[in-house]
Amino acid sequence: MTQHRIAHEMFAVDAASQKLGIELIDLGEGSATMSMTITEDMVNGYSITHGGYVFLLADTTFAMACNSREDSAVAARCDIRYLRSTKAGDVLIAQAVERARFGRNGIYDVTISSGDDVVAEFRGDSRTIASPK
């Protein structure tokens, strides 16, 4: 069995993440790092990155981290705190780390940065499920 098979298979067919140019940088047991370059199509009326795109990057990175083991998992709850704005041309890096895993549940934190600046903090709770057929 390929290491992190579930995460890799899931990401390979994730049309939304692929179309937005999200790239997998690193994947470990309970961790993931991904990147996304902000395009002109991703900014809002204030010419800053629409929060939904930041959330999507964090959520995708969270999904990769909680699916990096032998069990399939989905989000049970998540939230985000926006700390700084970004703009078109900025490269966002999301780093997810597993904080706890118990029973069918997991807790993950994702930090989204642009350069040296932390732009958002995301926390997600996962729940393992029966593997999709």
* Protein structure class: alpha+beta
Beta-strand residue percentage: 35-45%
Biggest β-sheet: count, sense, barrel? Answer: 6 strands, antiparallel
Approximate helicity band: 10-25%
Give me the CATH superfamily.
Answer: Hotdog Thioesterase
CATH C-level name: Alpha Beta
**Per CATH, which architecture?**
Roll
Shape: globular
User: What is the typical, i.e. mean, pLDDT?
Assistant: 95
The CATH topology assignment is Thiol Ester Dehydrase, Chain A
Strand order of the largest sheet: 1-2-4-5-6-3
How far apart lie the N and C ends? 17 Å
Radius of gyration: 14 Å
H/E series: HHEEHEEEE
Oligomer: single chain
What's the helix count?
Answer: 3
Low-confidence stretches: none
Summarize the entry for a quick read.
The protein is of the alpha+beta class.
Question: What would your notes on this structure say?
Answer:
By secondary structure, this protein is an alpha+beta fold. The protein has one domain: Hotdog Thioesterase (Thiol Ester Dehydrase, Chain A, Roll). 22% of the residues lie in helices and 44% in strands. It has 3 helices and 6 strands; from the N terminus they run ααββαββββ. The protein has a 6-stranded antiparallel β-sheet with strand order 1-2-4-5-6-3, covered by helices on one side. Strand 1 and strand 2 form a beta hairpin. Helix 1 packs antiparallel against helix 3. The two termini are 17 Å apart. The model has no long low-confidence stretch (mean pLDDT 95). This is Acyl-CoA thioesterase.
